[in-house]
Amino acid sequence: MSGLEFEKPIVELEEKIGELKEFQHKHSDQRRRINLSSEIKKLEDKLLILKKEIYGSLTPWQRIQIARHPRRPYTLDYIDMFSENFTQLHGDRYFADDTAIVTGFAKIDNQKLLIVGHQKGRDTQENIYRNFGCAHPEGYRKSLRLMQLAEKFNLPILVLIDTPGAYPGVGAEERGQAQAIAWNLREMVEIKTPIIIYVIGEGGSGGALGIGIGDRICVLENAYYSVISPEGCAAILWKNSTKANEAAEALKLTASDLLRFGIIDEIIKEPLGGAHRDPQETARNIRESLKKNLEDLSSISKDELIKRRYNKFRRIGVISEQSS
User: Fold this and answer.
1) What is the pLDDT of residues 291-311, one digit of tens each?
2) CA 224 – CA 244 distance, rounded (Å)
């Protein structure tokens, strides 16, 4: 399995273990069976230590690389893993259906709810179809339309965020990209049903925030949530996008930083090495968190829910100054 640059020592050791296991299997039917179990066990122990060392001290830029990993689970993957009877709904009733955002009703542990999420592609063709997870204004309008429908039937809303940002093309701007996002920000605050947000990969700028107003904001351990991408930040500050590593450090966009600043409510644990290493485990962690958050929010009145949601976002970025 190919890995990221900083994962090369891990990949090399995994390949060596795989070769030994294959060699042992090929010679397992011989009269004098070759037993390499002890050697394999030693390498597996060494691999676990190496993984803990590398993944236990990741830089912000390395976490971003994991968040962008091509094998990382996307919205539809999670929907398949932890929901039932997903019925996808399409269109904003104004212009078109935006395939960069999927919406639909489903059941999770007998709880009916609306699921909204960005969707990327696995290959070039699918990425073009999904517009690399960068939504057009019709995607945000579709999301809001379905959220208001969920409110009508008193169903909670699950949002899965994974986008580098909203699509900045001319067509999107002509159709009111900024207005669509701003409209969502205003209207989502007043939706009278629980909204729970999970950043599962990239959480870029207004593209993420356009469907990201909720009562609980949760971020996967190796996901990020930021006002701008590190490359965009580097291009503005240093006129050099290759300084993305430094920008990632300065932006404080990792889950631990966001929790420390009070921007998010919870960090969702990922398997060692990232969600792509064990998608099923990651899906279980999200589902357990979702159940707990839904239970916590179910006892809150609708008026109180809206009041808390409004105050939650008003508090973000508040600072206090002290005179010397």
Assistant:
1) 999 999 999 999 999 999 999
2) 14
